[in-house]
Amino acid sequence: LQVNFGTLWIQRDDWHQATECFRHALFLNDHSPTAWVGLALCHQVRGDLELAFANVERALDEDPCNETAISLIMDWARDQKQFGRATTRFTDFIDAGCFSPALSQSFIRKAVHFGENALADWESFHLNVRAERNCFNVLAERNRG
Predict the structure, then answer these.
(1) pTM for the full predicted model
(2) Which of 34, 81, 37 is nearest to 55 (CA)?
(3) CB atoms inside a 10 Å sphere around CB 137
(4) Residues 23/52, Cβ–Cβ less than 8 Å
(5) What is the predicted pLDDT for the residue at 132?
(6) Is residue 105 within 8 Å of residue 89, measured between CB atoms?
């Protein structure tokens, strides 16, 4: 409920109230990736990017497949060190069996931006493999039904 209230306060552009709601949610359950992501957004808006990164990473500790957290950590990467953190978390996302074509494409764009062309090529290859496998699984399910 506190996470929902925090989200409502974000929609009303009251970041102080949102922060309090997410903190209260984490007081009640510090294993809530959604609350960690909400708190990260609050810190990012206030300009504390390092704390925002730490909150997003905590969300990913709780749920390595949290697409919102992965997306944020990639979007917020402004230098090679931050991109390295995003790369590690994206790798954990993939290793956990998670798949999102949009996140893979975002990762490829970010890798190219930072001059990591081999990494971008590697993820592009894996994106195609995972997409083909996913398409095959969908077709197999249809044929069974």
Answers:
(1) 0.83
(2) 37
(3) 10
(4) no
(5) 72
(6) no
